[in-house]
Design a protein that fits this description.
alpha+beta
């Protein structure tokens, strides 16, 4: 029984404290004035009466009512029912007698009303939530006041405050009448005995009223009225479910509404649907405006706020806002709400929608049922709540089976085993359930519903008896609805136990009917009379007998156990019985000592242990072999058992949700082996490396389950001793669960005597205490590592840091103090050991504190424990030391032998092999995903040499154990070295730390050091890697130190090994610098070699001598004086290096013996830079216009960055246009350069003069072009017509319109999105835009040829020819060229393009490496290889470089010169210039030519190889930037598109890509020729060559190798004369280079040929030996793409044949011929044969015919020749191919033969040239005839390459074929017998072959076709 109302309060407006806009409320009166002892008066009520603030209003408002909720310090809720009405007050401002009415007229202010209304609130404070009763009571009091009824107000309030009602179970007959007190006082309602029941729930306040209070039957079920249904109507199903999940997972929720009562209802509804969980955080349904700062609290809350304050809630970042009026729920971005797990979420939504909208189901029926109405709001409310009850029953089913009872007396202590619950429900990964179980609400749920003996309610019944029904009805909506309706009925009954009783009289004010308003204000009440009422009532209550309501307690049923539920679903125990059988057999073999059998089964067992069932099976099986807690094994058995345990634990999560670790815990302390000296080693010392042992929650759960077992046995024994009369015997008791026992004991507790109670409490406590000691021991076993000096545990887990392990808290300060005193007293010498000990002691102390506090252990016991723990740990450390000592003496486990790698000549070990494990990375081929056994992880050793990092070992998978796995990369290519933390390595391999090493040769090593490697050795290893990767100076790189170093192998010293080299290099640099300053280089007379002899000269290149002589006067240093110097020493090397031969070949200037310059040559070789004083990064000799003196050069170079002024590097032999390269202009140079000449200038400043010089320089270049001189020097372009253009063939005219489009696309606009590209048209664009550049609208107009548009959109040819182009185009960087103005009379034009910067390239390359060689297997489905490749943007960068290059090629081909002037002139410029030359000049597509190209453009012109490759310590910060690699990739793309144009193979490009970063050769070291000369690298003297084995130049190495093997040669090389290549550059046409993705694990990279070759010969003999001994072997060979070297295992046909020829020559003892000679001979004979024979069969010409055109070529060339419709054909050539597989073919290079598919897909049985006589009066013409047996026809073409057939003779119409005679006009000098006729049904064809035999062959072939038909 409890009071209906605790306090009655009158709150009014405080007129005295009125200030500003906000008023205040004050409590006018409260009853009782003294606080109740059990319920103090809540503070701050006046704020809640007017939550929006106290204000006076000019008009009376209607009375209002709402209930606010206040929570006190004890978390009890007080319901404050506020009834507010408005009373008139005089306007205090008017009363002050200030302005009179006359004055008021003058004042412009708003008129102040004379009458104002102030709010007054009547408030009831109660602990019960009876909203309607409160509304009626307060309305009655108001009615008494307004209607001035005769009843004294004090009486009514006195009665109200003395009402006593039951909290629950209202219909108990034997309750005394509730309001007997009232009746005693008033005598107005004296019930008879019959009315007893009614009276128990009826009250009257003595004003002629009666009302019924519906007290709920069960107090535990919430009362919701209609609020839940109302909430769903306001917000909708999804929104409310979202709020429901948010509340359960402890988010902040804020309701907004303009109605206070609705806010309260919504909050009440949300709490009602959370039942059986209770909300335990801040709960304020109505928050006053003054307290809005509460919203920024960090804790979760449910709060309601009036919409009036909406604006102030906007900046709350982590609050979910539900707007009840607008029906919306807003979830902030930073908040993630975990939703219910599927399928529960879906089922719940469906069930709720069936309640709210039953018509939905039948909405589509053709004959809908008469009416399907939803229930009334009250019933609907209960139905929705029933759905949530049904939901919780499914969520928490079986929860009672996971409760641990750890104390029964004096009161039950119960803990929930979360991990086991989640594991059995198979929901361990579920975010929602995890958060709910960790939440405060669930903790309250366990403590409230955990006890096994208590009264039960609807939810308990549901969990116990209905779970099975719910599961079966799940799929049937009708049955689900039936169940929900049954539950709803019970909820409704609980809330409305007396539905029959109608509301009795409650007088209402007549205010509703007529506006009779209170004239006077609410009276002051007489406190004395009210207090009298209260005193009487309390006195009577004291004398009355106590009301004892029998509480129905019983044992709480547990419901069906969880395991059954899950097993029936069958999804957890999915392991087949066969696997379990394997596990059992293996264990049996181990214990029967059949080790060989066990070894065979082991891999299968380890795979099976991935499944949960097999793990459970293992623990059960091992249990069988434990006798009296001990099982002694021998070494091998012990190893196997430990391996299995480790494997089992490896896949357990740290939560151990399946209880596997729990089951293994007793076993790891049982299995042991005897070591020497009577020492025993237990299994726990070998299974410590698992996260689960450091998880506090795991230990707590284990402890509680053990305590529960012991307490259960304690009471079972008690029962058996005491209860002799029990006849059930033992069997019956064993069935009792711990909870049932506890329930029984709780029932008996009151009947026991004090002594018995005391005895039981003590027994339980000692049980808990002994378990705590036991667990302290267990924990020290698993937390102290075997070798206590290695603090491995602290490093890998959170043990070291006290707070990180669990959310448990140390409740007792003893823990801290004990640990501290232990540190100071225990006298450890060794700090490290004590570190381990300390952290373990701290961990165990925290554990003991937590469990002992929760299980009620006394403080004395706790102190005892704290003193024991350090001793336990210390004792254990001592035992472990002995075990560790002895275990070291054990013969080591047989680990695989370390294999030593072969080394290159001059390569030496820096660190010898360290045993490591190579862990699998993200490349799938090696890990066995593709169905082959996994090659990785592998066990072996890592070696560090002066050149490479090499791993060599064998796979751990026994199925591929014989294979050898090798991974290596040059140390110089290392780009990243980082630590790996989570090493997932299988089985029992104990590893300490891991490293990830990534190389820019697309290789990755994830290695983990074996335990035998000392950790300091790993550190030394790291240091050495860094030292070798970034040497102090370039002379520390392998290319220099090769063969020179003394012994570098590590003997642990810190002294610098390279001291001698460093001093040497320093001296070298000094002397070199001095020399350069003082002396200069001289040359012998140089007679230029003929071009034929170039190869012989080439080979001497590195062998020529260099000499220096005293330097003459600087001014006289011209080339002639230098060369005429008396010292006749050679300088041909400089000439070579400056690529003079190439310049001479191109006709760009000569160095003749007399050096008389032929004045008519437009260009000359300048020696202005011979001392590298003009530009450090340029070569010594440069090509400049003839007319420009060296002095001018000195002036113009200031305008260019790095002094890299424009120089000529190539000349088009046909159009004589030249290609120039330079750096970008300095900013000031740009503006001066493009300034309009008539702009006023302030005077001849330096900038002006240099820009004039610049103009002169460019003019000189333009003048050098023949097309310009022919135009007789006029510089206006309008009248100029290039002879080249007018004389050129139609194909040239047709080629021109393309450039305009090309230009437009290459110049992107600023605002385009980077990285996009247009798909239309032939040419991809850099910025994906067809618009003109923002820089200058006229650029490229002449180029684009702004023609008048024609009907068909094509340009008119004549008009086009009038449009002239600039003579010189300058390709410049858009960002550099802002603000310049184009001069219409200049003959050059600037093409601004956007180039990517190096940062972009660097990032792109990093992403490309991650895409091609991912470091770990990718779980994210979105990040596939192709997605990562796209993200890297690498292909887009290639596309941009290729596109610019093709544009330049087009321009040069059309007779305009081009100057590439980008960035500093050594990165993108070099790429573009090199590609342009490669595309335009076939010579550079040969092996020699490509070498020359790289030497000239990349090495001589100063690409910064050392800087971009970060080769030394100084460049380390700049990082690796693969500019040269990008160029090689572009060449690879062109090679793919034109495979017949290149003499070198794809392997050649890969070889260069590998070795330009490997630092094996000196070729790609240093940044310029100047630096190379300074170091003496450029021209090495013959005497210096000490080691003939060691090649210093990559070119020399390639030459040597090329003589031995055709690996660098492309057999399809069949070049066209003067062919200009124009590749497609669309991303869709580009392929990923296989260099990035391929791997050869059998031998490592194949680019160090000596290593590969040496290895190749070994296996052959082994194989032959093996063949003799074994049975006949299969001829089949398995080829692994990632393991074998495909070049070797599956060589191409020609290589194989050449190899066979060589082998045969060896066998026959002939002198072996070089492969190249064999090949050349074969080609020449083949050509000769093909000339002799007219029949040119397809197959014979397949491989070597040089006149077989590649399709890509024929598309462009032959169509142009045909002349007919060529404009259309050419357009097709340009435009159609934008698709990824262009129409007429972009053949894939995947197979050799598909290249040569003939132009139509036809079958050419026989073909050749025949003369055919035309029809009447037409001459004889040669035609290419093709006999096609498949189509049964004879076709003829104009020429062999032609695609369009001229005519077809159907063989079906041929009647006969017979010899003919020569007729008029027949070809002369041909044998008569060469003629034959072909007679068809329509006409006779006269045909003539080249000779009689050929004619006979043709006749026979046709005849055989006819006879076949």
């Amino acid at each position: 029984m409890t009071r209906l109302a605790d306090y009655f309060v009158v709150v009014g407006y405080d007129l005295d404290k009125r200030g500003g806009s906000e008023g205040q409320g004050q409590i006018l009166q409260r009853f009782p004035e003294k606080d109740w002892e059990d319920n103090p008066f809540p503070q701050g009520i006046e704020l809640f009466c007017q939550p929006s603030g106290w204000q006076l209003v000019p008009e009376r408002k209607p009375a209002s009512f709402f209930v606010a909720v206040l929570t006190d310090i004890n978390s009890d809720r007080h319901y404050c029912a506020c009834f507010t009405f408005w009373e008139s007050v005089e306007n205090p401002q008017l009363q002050k007698g200030e302005p009179s009415e006359a004055d008021e007229d003058d004042s412009p202010d708003v008129l102040q009303p004379a009458q104002l209304y102030a709010p007054k609130s009547l408030v009831l404070v109660s602990r019960l939530d009876h909203t309607e009763v409160f509304r009626n009571c307060l309305s009655l009091i108001y009615t008494v006041h307004v209607d001035s009824l005769t009843v004294p107000m004090e009486t009514v309030i006195g009665n109200l405050l003395t009402c006593i009602i039951p909290i629950a179970g209202g219909s108990q007959i034997n309750d005394p009448p509730l309001c007997s007190l009232t009746d005693w006082l008033l005598g107005c309602f004296q019930p008879g005995q019959d009315d007893r029941e009614e009276s128990s729930r009826t009250i009257t306040l003595g004003a002629g009223d009666r009302q019924v209070i519906q007290t709920p039957i069960h107090d535990s079920l919430p009362v919701s009225g209609c609020s839940v249904a109302q909430l769903f109507r306001q917000l909708g199903i999804v929104n409310v479910l979202c709020l429901f999940c948010a509340a359960l997972t402890e988010h902040k929720i804020l309701f907004l509404s303009s109605s206070y009562q609705r806010l309260t209802d919504a909050c009440r509804a949300l709490l009602a649907i959370m039942f059986p969980l209770k909300y335990s955080f801040t709960y304020v349904p109505i928050l006053p405006g003054k307290l809005l700062e509460v919203l920024s609290t960090p804790t979760p809350f449910i709060i309601g706020v009036n919409s009036y304050f909406r604006s102030e809630t906007q900046e709350l970042l982590d609050v979910i806002i539900a707007d009840l009026d607008g029906g919306t729920v807003t979830v902030p971005e930073c908040v993630h709400i975990s939703l219910l797990p599927e399928p529960l979420l879906h089922h719940t939504q469906t069930a709720i929608s069936m309640v709210l909208d039953p018509e939905l189901e039948v909405a589509d029926y053709a004959f809908p049922p008469p009416s399907v109405q939803p229930s009334t709001l009250k019933i609907q409310d209960k139905e929705i709540r029933a759905v949530f009850l049904w939901l919780f029953a499914q969520l928490f089913q079986g929860y009672r089976w996971c409760l641990h009872i750890i104390r029964i007396y004096p009161e039950p202590a119960i803990r929930f085993h979360k991990a086991a619950f989640l594991g059995q429900r198979a929901l361990a990964e579920d975010d929602f359930l995890m958060k709910v179980l960790d939440g405060m609400a669930f903790a309250g749920f366990v403590s409230e519903r955990g006890p096994p003996y208590r009264s039960i309610d609807l939810f308990d019944d549901l969990i116990a008896n209905q779970v099975e029904r719910i599961r079966q009805e799940m799929g049937n909506p009708q049955k689900v609805m039936k169940h929900i309706k049954e539950l709803a009925e019970q909820l409704f009954k609980n809330e409305n136990p007396y539905p029959a009783v109608s509301m009795h009289r409650v007088q209402r004010t007549s205010e509703n009917t007529q506006p009779r308003l209170p004239q006077n204000s609410f009276p002051l009440l007489d406190e004395v009379s009210v207090q009298l009422f209260i005193d009487h009532a309390t006195a009577k209550l004291k004398t009355a007998p106590p009301v004892v309501k029998a509480e129905l307690k019983c044992m709480v049923p547990s419901g069906p156990p969880l395991a059954d539920i899950v097993d029936r679903n069958g999804n957890v125990l999915a392991n087949s019985a066969r696997r379990l059988e394997v596990v059992r057999n293996c264990i049996t073999y181990i214990f029967d000592n059949k080790m060989l059998e066990a070894k065979k089964l082991m891999p299968a067992v380890l795979r099976a242990l991935k499944g949960r069932a097999a793990r459970v099976c293992l623990t059960q099986e091992l249990n069988l072999h434990v006798l009296q807690n001990r099982a002694v094994l021998d070494d091998q058995q012990f190893d196997y058992i430990v391996r299995m345990m480790n494997c089992t634990l490896q896949d357990c999560s740290h939560m151990d949700e399946h209880g596997i670790a729990a089951a293994l815990l007793p076993l790891v302390t049982a299995f042991c082996r005897k070591l020497g000296g009577g020492i025993t080693q237990f299994a726990y010392s070998c299974v410590q490396e698992h996260m689960v042992w450091t998880n506090m929650q795991f230990w707590e759960a284990m402890f509680y389950s053990d305590v529960q077992k012991h307490i259960r046995t304690l009471y079972l024994e008690n029962d058996e001793e005491g209860d002799i009369s029990n006849t059930e015997g033992e069997g019956g008791h064993k069935q009792l669960s711990a909870l049932e026992l506890a329930s029984e004991q709780s029932r008996l507790w009151p009947t026991l005597s004090k002594e018995q109670q005391q005895e039981r409490v003590q027994k339980e406590e000692s049980t808990v205490f002994s378990q705590a000691i036991h667990y302290a021991n267990r924990m020290s076993y698993l937390l102290l590592p075997l070798d206590t000096s290695k603090n491995r545990l602290l490093r890998n887990t959170g043990l070291g840091d006290v707070e990180s392990i669990s959310n448990s808290y140390v409740t007792n300060s003893i823990a801290g103090s004990m640990a501290e005193s232990y540190d100071t007293e225990s006298g450890f010498e060794d700090a490290e050991v004590s570190d381990v000990a300390n952290s373990v002691v701290r961990f165990i102390n925290r554990f003991v504190d937590k469990v002992c506090n929760e299980s009620g252990v006394t403080n004395e016991h706790l102190k005892a424990l704290h003193t024991m723990i350090p001793d336990i740990v210390q004792m254990h450390i001592e035992t472990l030391d002995a075990v560790h000592r002895e275990s070291k003496r054990l013969p080591p486990i047989q680990k695989p032998k370390l294999l030593r790698p072969a080394l290159l000549p001059g390569e030496e070990f820096v660190m010898d092999g360290m045993r490591v494990h190579l862990i699998a990375d993200g490349r799938e081929e090696t890990t066995g995903v593709m169905g082959v056994p996994p090659l990785l992880p592998a066990e072996g050793a890592i070696f560090l040499t002066s050149y490479r990092l090499i791993f060599k070992g064998t796979p751990t998978d026994p199925l591929v154990g014989e294979q050898v796995v090798t991974r290596s990369f040059p140390i110089a290519s290392l780009t990243k070295e980082s630590k790996i933390s989570n090493i997932n390595i299988p089985l029992d391999q104990l590893v300490q730390e891991g490293m990830q090493l990534r190389s820019c040769t697309f290789q990755l090593m994830n290695i983990a050091f074996d335990e035998e490697v000392a950790s300091d050795l790993a550190e030394v290893f790291k240091k050495h890697i860094n030292k070798l990767r970034f040497p102090q100076h370039v002379q520390g790189t392998f290319a220099f130190t090769v063969g020179q170093t003394a012994n570098l192998v590590v003997e642990h010293k810190t002294k610098d090994k390279n001291q001698s080299i460093k001093t040497l290099s320093k001296n070298l640099v000094k002397t070199a610098k001095r020399t350069i300053g003082r002396q200069y280089v001289t040359r012998k007379k140089y007679s230029p070699p003929t071009w034929e002899n170039r190869s012989s000269l080439q080979s001497e290149m590195d062998e020529d001598e260099i000499s220096v002589s005293e330097e003459p006067d600087q001014s006289s240093l011209t080339l002639s004086s230098t060369i005429r110097s008396s010292d006749r020493q050679t300088m041909s090397n400089v000439v070579e290096r400056a690529c003079c031969r190439d310049y001479q070949r191109l006709g760009l200037g000569t160095l003749s013996s007399s050096l008389t310059r032929s004045k008519n040559e437009p260009f000359r070789i300048s020696t202005v830079n011979r001392m590298y004083t003009v530009c450090r990064s340029y070569p010594g000799l440069l090509i400049v216009p003839q007319s420009i003196p060296d002095s001018t050069i000195q002036r113009i170079l200031r305008c260019y960055r790095q002094n890299r002024f424009p120089v000529v590097c190539w000349r088009n032999p046909r159009t004589k246009a030249v290609l120039l390269r330079s750096a970008g202009l300095h900013a000031k140079g740009v503006v001066g350069f493009f300034k309009s000449p008539n702009a006023p200038s302030a005077g001849p400043s330096q900038a002006d003069s240099s820009s004039l010089e610049q103009e002169k320089y460019l003019q000189a270049i333009i003048s050098s072009m023949p097309s310009y001189s022919e135009a007789s020097g006029r510089n206006t372009l309008s009248s100029f017509t290039s002879t080249h253009m007018s004389a050129s063939d139609s194909s040239d005219k047709l080629r021109q319109p393309k450039i305009g489009a090309l230009m437009k696309q290459v110049m992107g606009t600023k605002d385009d999105v980077p990285g996009t590209f247009s798909r239309g048209g032939k040419w991809g664009s850099i910025r994906g835009s067809g618009q003109q550049s923002t820089y200058n609208p006229d650029v490229g107009n002449r180029l684009a040829g702004k023609e008048s548009p024609q009907a068909n959109g094509g340009p008119t040819e004549t008009y086009f020819l009038r449009q002239q182009r600039a003579y010189l185009y300058i390709i410049g960087d858009k960002s550099q060229l802002k603000g310049g103005k184009q001069d219409s009379f200049q003959q050059w034009e600037v093409v601004p393009i956007e180039v990517f910067d190096l940062r972009q390239l660097k990032n792109s390359f990093k992403k490309l490496m991650k895409a091609c060689v991912p470091s770990s297997s990718n779980t994210d489905q979105n990040m596939t290889f192709h997605r990562c490749l796209e993200d890297s943007d690498w292909m887009n960068l290639l596309h941009r470089v290729l596109q610019v290059s093709v544009l330049v090629v087009e321009l040069l081909d059309n007779g305009s010169s081009v100057m590439v002037s980008l960035e500093d002139g050594w990165d993108v410029t070099t790429q573009v210039v090199s590609l342009v030359q490669l595309l335009s000049d076939p010579y550079y597509r040969t092996i020699d030519g490509f070498r020359l190209l790289v030497e000239k453009e990349w090495l001589s012109f100063g690409h910064r190889f050392s800087h971009r490759g970060a080769q030394t310590l100084a460049n380390q910060s700049s990082g690796f930037t693969p500019v040269f690699l990008q160029f090689l990739d572009c060449v690879h793309q062109i090679h793919l598109q034109f495979p017949m144009e290149f003499e070198f193979s794809q392997y050649y490009l890969k070889f260069l890509a590998y070795h330009y970063v490997s630092n094996r050769f000196r070729t790609f070291l240093l940044d310029s020729d100047y630096e190379r000369i300074e170091l003496g690298v450029l021209y090495e003297e013959k005497g210096e060559r000490r080691n003939p084995q060691v090649c210093k130049s990559v070119w020399e190495y390639i030459d040597r190798l090329n003589k031995k093997t055709p690996i660098f040669y492309n057999y399809m090389f069949s070049p066209e004369e003067e062919e200009v290549l124009k590749p497609y550059s669309y991303i869709s046409n580009l392929k990923v280079w296989d260099y990035y993705t391929e791997e050869t694990l059998s031998e490592g990279p194949s680019f160090d040929w000596e290593l590969v070759r040496g290895r190749q010969e070994e296996p052959v003999d082994e194989a032959s030996d093996r063949q003799e001994t074994t049975a006949p072997k299969s001829q089949r060979r398995i080829v692994w793409p990632c393991y074998d070297s495909l070049i070797k295992v599956v060589p191409d046909a020609i290589t194989k044949l050449l190899q066979d020829v060589q082998n045969l020559e060896n066998e026959l003892g002939h002198p072996t011929e070089k492969w190249k000679d064999t090949w050349d001979k074969t080609k020449t004979t083949q050509r000769a044969e093909s000339r002799l024979e007219s029949r040119h069969s397809f197959s014979s010409s397949l491989l070597m015919s040089s006149n077989l055109s590649h399709q890509r070529r024929s598309q462009g060339m032959y169509l142009q020749e045909s002349g007919v419709g060529s404009s259309i054909n050419l357009a097709l050539d340009c435009e159609v191919s934008a698709t990824s597989t262009p129409a007429a073919g972009r053949p894939s290079t995947s197979t050799l033969y598909s290249q040569f598919q003939s132009t139509e897909s036809e079958n050419r049985s026989f073909e050749g040239i025949l003369y055919k006589r035309g029809a009447l009066l037409k001459p004889w013409r040669p035609r290419w005839f093709v006999l096609d047996k498949t189509k049964h026809q004879l076709r003829y073409y104009d020429a062999r390459q032609d695609k369009e057939c001229k005519g077809v003779i159907d063989l079906a119409e041929v009647e006969s074929v017979f010899p003919g005679t020569p007729t008029m006009g027949a070809p002369k000098n041909i044998d008569e017998k060469a003629f034959f006729d072909l007679k068809t049904t329509k006409r006779v064809y006269n045909i003539c072959a080249q000779d009689s035999t050929n004619a006979q062959l043709w006749m026979d072939s046709i005849q055989s076709c006819l006879s076949d038909a």
